[in-house]
């Protein structure tokens, strides 16, 4: 297991209630895990435990253990853990502060004591991977939202982490930017075999790409499983405010109307049932 979380609880200093309440989970190498849950359920707090920001940089009461690639986060600095787990947050502007795209990516490497040549090789590899090589001399604030977020991803990728944790990386982007970033994440998982943990409200995307979905509610894991298994719990999820992928919602309604006996995931099959129901109504 590349990530192991054992009974983790966390209460922010000055907060009366814990934000995480006994989270246990593990992530396999190469896995793509999607995290969903209502606002305030602890998703962001959980992400911050994965590279040691909690407990090292944010004060509070931390219980349990998180192991990243075998390292207990309590015993290693955020700098060391960041070479294993790259963390990307919602707002790309808050993560970029250098004068050029290239400097932004180089900056992350500066304290790692890497040789000049290897540095250049890594920067080239990363910028090509995220599709920003041609824009390497540009001023980051001039990039589009999607490009900025791809640059934020590049600046953690350049450290060659085995795991990428992304906390709603598309929340502030327009539809095009969102598409660019989500395709990049899928590519990094499929082609580069990077383990991905993604907090994302776009459940359509998660249904397509995630191997597993974890649902957070009130600081706990409410359920987890394959996307098809989890999203089948339409009523429970809608009750807590998790969006159901459109085709599952349609199929769920077909089942309620007695037109199928179970939820169908296959688009073609849904269309077939709808066609059949339409024909039946006409005749
Ligand atoms: N710095 C902080 N200090 C005190 N309480 C906090 C802090 N950050 C978050 N919380 C509280 O912890 C709980 C979990 O918040 P968290 O941001 O982890 O949830 P979330 O599921 O990521 O929500 P969202 O989808 O809105 O980002 C909330 O009750 C929130 O108010």
From TrEMBL:
It is found in: Cell membrane. This is Cobalt transport ATP-binding protein. CDD domains: ABC_cobalt_CbiO_domain1 (cd03225). It comes from the Archaea. The lineage of its organism: Archaea, Methanobacteriati, Methanobacteriota, Thermococci, Thermococcales. One of its GO terms (cellular component) is ATP-binding cassette (ABC) transporter complex. It is a peripheral membrane protein. Belongs to the ABC transporter superfamily. PROSITE patterns: ABC_TRANSPORTER_1 (PS00211), ABC_TRANSPORTER_2 (PS50893). One of its GO terms (molecular function) is ATP hydrolysis activity. It comes from Pyrococcus yayanosii (strain CH1 / JCM 16557). Probably part of an ABC transporter complex. Responsible for energy coupling to the transport system.
């Amino acid at each position: 297991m590349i990530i192991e979380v054992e009974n983790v609880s966390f209460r922010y200093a000055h907060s009366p209630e814990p934000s995480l309440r006994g989270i246990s989970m593990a992530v396999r190498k190469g896995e793509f895990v999607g995290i969903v849950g209502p606002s305030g359920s602890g998703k962001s707090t959980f992400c911050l435990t994965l590279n040691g920001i909690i407990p090292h940089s944010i004060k509070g009461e931390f219980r349990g253990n998180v192991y990243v690639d075998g390292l207990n986060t309590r015993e290693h600095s955020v700098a060391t853990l960041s070479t294993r787990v790259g963390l990307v947050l919602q707002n790309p502007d808050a993560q970029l502060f250098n004068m050029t795209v290239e400097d932004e990516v180089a900056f992350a490497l500066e304290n790692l004591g890497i040789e000049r040549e290897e540095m250049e090789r890594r920067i080239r590899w990363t910028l090509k991977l995220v599709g920003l090589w041609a824009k390497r001399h540009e001023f980051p604030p001039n990039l589009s939202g999607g490009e900025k977020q791809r640059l934020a991803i590049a600046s953690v990728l350049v450290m060659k982490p085995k795991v990428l944790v992304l906390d709603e990386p598309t929340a502030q982007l327009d539809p095009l930017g969102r598409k660019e970033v989500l395709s990049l994440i899928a590519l990094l998982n499929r082609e580069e075999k990077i383990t991905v943990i993604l907090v994302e409200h776009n459940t359509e995307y998660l249904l397509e790409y995630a191997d597993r979905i974890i649902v957070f509610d009130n600081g706990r894991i409410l359920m987890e499983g394959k996307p098809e298994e989890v999203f089948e719990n339409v009523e429970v999820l809608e009750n807590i405010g998790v969006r159901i992928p459109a085709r599952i919602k349609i199929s769920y309604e077909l089942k309620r109307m007695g037109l199928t006996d179970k939820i169908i995931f296959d688009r073609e099959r849904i269309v077939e049932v709808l066609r059949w129901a339409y024909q039946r109504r006409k005749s």
